[in-house]
Amino acid sequence: MVDTSSFGIKLDRPGTTSLRTAFYSVWFVDLVATVLFFVVPYATELNPVTVFLHDLFGLAGVVLAALLYASFVILIGHVLSRPFDIAFLVSVVVLYAVFASNNVVLLVSREPLLAPIIS
Q: Keywords for this entry (predicted)?
């Protein structure tokens, strides 16, 4: 589907609707888990950009960092042509799913998902 913005630029939405929904879903789960990293005493966020923005703006900085990451992914998806945009979005969804799963497991069990494998 090609949309025309108010600036007259044609935007080609990357992937399918279900793929974009999957991206937004795992992105949101990761966002919530990351916000919780700054609230619970036993978990630590490792991303230096997120930590920097948190130090500047508090929890709003964490949300700002997440919005910047999502915007970056969406921008790349708009720039890439098919089928590269679909492959890129699928890889981002898979990576976000792994990261979000690890974050949720860490918050619930206080142990990262990959700890038994690494130790």
A: Membrane, Transmembrane, Transmembrane helix
Cβ contact 18:87 at 8 Å: no
**3-class DSSP state of 103:** helix
Q: What is residue 16's three-state secondary structure?
A: coil
pTM for the full predicted model: 0.74
Q: If DSSP codes are grouped into helix, strand and coil, which group holds residue 32? A: helix
How does DSSP classify residue 4? E
pLDDT band at residue 85 under the 50/70/90 scheme: confident
CA 15 to CA 18: how far, in whole Å?
8
| Neighbour count for residue 53 (Cβ, 10 Å) | 20
